[in-house]
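User: My instructor asked us to take a sequence, write out its structure as tokens, and then describe one feature of it. I'm not sure where to start. Here is the sequence I was given:
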Amino acid sequence: MGTKRWNIKTIPDPDAVGELQKALNNLPHALARTLILRDIDSFETARSFFRDGLDRLHDPAEYTGMHLAVERVLNAIEKGEQITVYGDYDVDGTTSTALLTHYLKSVGARVQFFIPDRFKHGYGLSPSGLNAVKELGTDLIIALDCGVTAVSEAELARDLGMELIICDHHTPQDELPDAVAVLDAKREDCDYPFKDLCGCGVTFKLVRAVHQALGHDPDELLHYLDLVAVATAADMVPLKGENRILLREGLKQLRRRPRMGLRILADQAGARLSEATTRSIVFSLGPRINAAGRLGDAARAVNLLLADDQIEATARARQLERLNEERRALDRETQKQAFAQADRFLAGKERHAVVLHHPDWHLGVIGIVASRLVERHYRPAVMLATSGKVIKGSARSVAGINIYNALTACEDLLEEYGGHDYAAGLTMRPENLPDFIDRFDKAVLESVSEDTLEPVIHVDAEMRLSELDERFWAVLKQFEPFGQENPSPVFVARDLDIMGPVAGVGKKRDHLKFSVRERGATHPVRNVIGFGLGKYISEVAEAQAAQQPIDLAFSIEENTWNGRTSLQLNVLDIRTTTPQ
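Assistant: Let's start with the prediction itself. The structure tokens for your sequence are:
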């Protein structure tokens, strides 16, 4: 049945598992092994992983340039200068903008915000965007989630009579913009200990530093953590260190006291914020906030996040819901075209990446479709569309291939580019497209090992279903929140009998549902759900009829149905085995 390779992750020192089990009161072997794989190998590191709170956050003053940024912001507040918060149109950028705008208003600043239009201004700081904010009477620009590579734009801002502070988390180039301060932990001369905050996380650091400089208690800012949590989850930054703390504490804020705009947006999406998780942010809140910038004016999302009137918030949330429906329809049509084009593209010469261009594709959905291409073909994908006189696009990658580095190898063919290990944006002239396709493929090839482009499931540990008791689940639940570099642990259980009816569920029966128990055992029987595995319905049913056992690769989750909550196995892949 399954077509993926199961990679049981290796541990350098197998004895470390037993030692950790003893240190943690005979923790089950599968859980101890899973912790070791996350570099948690002692009682102290486990306590940090499970218990670290806000008191473990680093001092914002450790950012290079933070004291300069704080001094300039305080000066602007004191003199009544016009501050413009210049954000980005994605979830990270809009939450950052809402956070800083709200905070500065609360401390008496003259502040407004500006989100560039994806189609009119392009990404980040741009000449047209800077001219627009100049017309708003701006004295000081604070750029959020963008700007670290905007060298010429910083010069233009200065020529226009505006000063600039940059808060970013993207990878800088050799030359930094000439600004009042450039807050980016990835700059070489920055000693801030944690390098992987999202843009909203960096914004929160600036706000904490300003608040402290004003003589206020930083704990007064905890109500902003719902925004930081949404950005951290949606931007898919590594969930370790400060990101893990901020997301965990932010989820508590979302569950207990979310701001009005997020609460009503969740209601529109049919999501329960009282049970908010990384997954619900990524699949419910994130797409709706993104829809504003993808298909229209991202300021709509910021205004929703700033709304404190229920009638206004409801109207704005409904507007984002309608935009998201439009986005989904456009997404489906673009995906259909891209899948067909990708099949033709890969049918020719051997390719290690998928690079597709259609002049009429909508810039607002090509990033989503690029991610789907990665899932389908398990290789980096670049989706490109024509925008005026240039081609713009979004790139997505797989584990082991740094998409930003691959684009850097082609930088002489690009007008601009920027991003992370797994996601990036780019702009080029149309005449450079043929050379880019070949050069980018070569850059990817240089990062490819023998099995990089082979679909693989990375398994934390093998276990028996009988191990899954109340204590096992209580500990496993504390591994949350899950996300990049802290995924939901994957286990393998072998020699299982298929129980109960084998059924397809969902509108198109594209999901698989049945139950299993260990061969020879009478309990426990565990329910299984396989999202997107409906194609295996007949094969699983045949295995059941032949009394043929199966092996499962799965994660463990809670399922609530008709008011009852139980554990289920979220199966990722299935193999048939020979009966013992």
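For the description part of your assignment, you could build on this observation: The domain at 56-321 is CATH 3.90.1640.30 (inorganic pyrophosphatase (n-terminal core)). Try explaining in your own words what that tells you about the chain.
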